[in-house]
């Protein structure tokens, strides 16, 4: 850890203060009064230093006895937490930090994410995706208490009531205005490193907010590894995954539940499906994000097809032209399209995929007849693909 140089140590009437300067003035950052011990520690923080080294220096400075160490350690942690809450500690290379050695590992598809932060901050929705220590980590995600040391400026790419995306020279900054406990995240351009800045307590709402916010850097990481995510519900039929997608309220979960009740097929994911390639073949891979359905299978399955749903007073399959197939599926992808280059990543994936799988539109009711109509269409397609 290292001190944020946008705070300076000054005395006011002989009393030491850490005071904001530069961008921190524009951000209306407050100052902080410290004592003699705080001054000593602040000077040490001029260089990147670990907590253990700070404690050792503090012990020698006060010539502490063994019985004094618990009190010194408590005071040190309290001081560091105050600095973090004010944004007075700057980011350092995680490889040089002792905290980088600890954390939990999560695997979604074949992508491994290392989550470093308080265990109480992590949602139970990740449980089925946690794995043992991994040598090949694709993304390291730090969960930090407090605000970032510096609010950087850049080009605003996206703005809504729930999400703000800023592009800087070195990274993306993600802001979450509607969230109470998760303020922002910093995402490296290569997708390998993420810092989340949050405010405790680590209660259910905190964990829920962080769980949903982590989805954004994961989507970016997945895209960089030639994967896309389709807003859809999925089921397993004839050893293949079938994805059902449509605008909000169309009834994708209702339709897959009809299949489950009528034909007893397994459901795979209720909201987000990760499309990827394995040995040159299209597959879907499990992720923990599944909306309110609670249905998320961590497995990998061959991808059979994508069905676009449209509510109607009748059940009918519509054959689509090649360009319409691509357009409708493209509109249902939630992988980043923050820039023309990222949009092209989605388009290139879809161009490779579209002629390899079944894609159709189902005009449907919410009755069992809709599932029966769709099953018949899939059966006819699969039978036509079978060698004579």
Describe the structure.
The protein is an alpha+beta fold and 388 residues long. It is built from nine helices and 23 strands. Strands 8-6-7-9-14-13-12-11-10 form a nine-stranded mixed β-sheet. The longest helix has 21 residues, at 204-224. The chain is elongated. 30% of the residues are buried.
Summarize the structure.
This protein has 388 residues and is α+β, with helices and mostly antiparallel strands.
Strand content: 25-35%
Rg over CA atoms, rounded to whole Å, is 26 Å
Largest sheet: 9 strands, mixed
Mean pLDDT level: 91
Main structural class = alpha+beta
* Weakly predicted, low-confidence segments: 93-101
Task: Give the terminus-to-terminus CA distance.
Answer: 67 Å
The side-by-side strand order for the widest beta sheet comes to 8-6-7-9-14-13-12-11-10
Principal-axis shape: elongated
The DSSP helix count reads 9
Q: Fraction of residues in helices? A: 25-40%
Please give the number of β-strands. 23
Strands, helices and their partners?
Layout: E1 2-3, E2 7-12, E3 15-20, H1 23-26, E4 32-33, H2 36-44, H3 51-61, H4 69-86, E5 89-90, E6 104-108, E7 111-116, E8 130-131, E9 139-145, E10 155-159, E11 164-167, E12 171-175, E13 182-188, E14 193-198, H5 204-224, E15 228-231, E16 233-237, E17 240-245, H6 252-263, E18 267-269, E19 272-278, E20 281-285, E21 300-311, E22 316-318, H7 322-332, H8 340-353, E23 358-364, H9 368-385
Helix pairs in contact: 3-4, 6-9
